[in-house]
Fold this protein.
Amino acid sequence: MSTGTSLLPIEVATPADLPSILDLLSTEYGYPYNSAAFWQWRYFQNPVAQVAIYVVRGETGEVAAMQPVSAYSMVVGGEVRRVHLFTGAITHSRYRRRGLFRRLIEQIVADLGQRGDFFIYTFPNELSVQGFQRFTGWQLRELLSLYVRPLFSLGWLQSGSAVSGKIDVAPTLSPERVGDLILSEVSHFEEDTHLLLQSAFLNRSVYVQRSRDYLEWRYPGNPTSTYFIQQVQCGDDLVGYVVVKASQLYGLRAGLVADLVASDNQVARALLKRTIRASRRRGLQVLAYLVGRFNPYRGALLRAGFLPLPRQGLPRRFYLYTHPGTATGGALGRTIEEMPWYVTWGDTDVV
């Protein structure tokens, strides 16, 4: 006789649950999301976030459903605050349509509420968004925009030619000087980003704190993905960087621009120009940049040949949902909702 859904216990997973978690993931996802290396990096051994993986135990003790919660630092009006990101939700096919996802979300919101003011954000896919559309307190913050920059002829892209095979990210460009700027390709973030973030357009928005430790964990430290990084210095100061992941996307060799930060549009244009050359050198066929409504580099993107795809032309929609803390909105939630938010592909869990 099956245990009633309401009686299936909700717990916070421990490292001992990793095999059961990977078994669950393997029912829906392939590499890297079902790899132990990815999960140790993203969740169990994350050095920059406080992580709790909420799980529903199945009838034989297995992980039947889960929702990871990661607390990251966000800069809000110049003040660093802790916010919570939901990623990687999944329910085993045997336990679907039994309300487990709703129970997980409600339990996490209740637990966070006991700790005081809180704010949650998530980037649901086409399946999980149906839940957030119904759950109490959740708001569609925005639909993200996708900018693309073909690196070869539009006629070739329209032909639908597909490419397979591993993408080589090894080739690099030599350092170059553009006026007072020195552009170079690097494998690590050696410079503190504090002064850059203060001078960049980001100081007019809220954003996930891009400290050196965070960037090192998020990109060079990722054991299952490879990125290439272009940076710009003016004298001894870091004044901009761009992070790109080379990937197969809809049959194309695509460069996915995970993050872009620059002190002004001149620096952004120089970075994008160099990124286009570096991407062509790697044999990439298109660059894609996902960004929210607050896009301080829109002018630089347009001048570099990036074009926003119309929503009806998107292969899928990219949602940002938020929970501001209470039904009426906590103080932290109200502040974040009132300010522009700089969000890019790198803030999600898919690039």
Observations:
- The mean pLDDT is 90.
- The longest strand covers residues 63-76.
